[in-house]
Amino acid sequence: MFTLKRSNKDVRDRWGKTNFDFQPSLIYWLWVRIYLANLEWIEGVAILVAVLVVVFVTAFNDWRKERQFRGLQSKIEKDQLSSVIRDNHVQQIPVAELVVGDLCFIKYGKISK
Fold first, then answer.
1. Segment-wise mean pLDDT, segments of 10 residues, the chain, 113 residues
2. 49-64 in b/e burial notation, b at 16+ Cβ within 10 A?
3. What are phi and psi of 101, to 5 degrees?
4. Which of 17, 52, 74, 84 is buried most, with the most CB atoms less than 10 Å from its CB?
């Protein structure tokens, strides 16, 4: 491990003293005074921003869930088949392709207690 041994005096002699001499001017203090006096609007803006964030996040989540639901619904419609009589033949067709005039076979499913 490499360590550099220098005293604070050596560093100060080479680079000088660290100086934090900030003296705010009269204009600075006037600006701070005026700015702080007019901070009543911040509470209203903060509430408005919070409401907008909640609205947009909720809308985005609803849109995403609706899109997911539509995808699942279309998959169910494509996968679900129905037995119908068309042109005097029994056929298996997707439920989405049913039209007026098809004779459908109605079957009952499993009934559980």
1. 66 75 76 74 87 97 95 81 88 86 81 58
2. eeeeeeeeeeeeeeee
3. 105, -15
4. 84
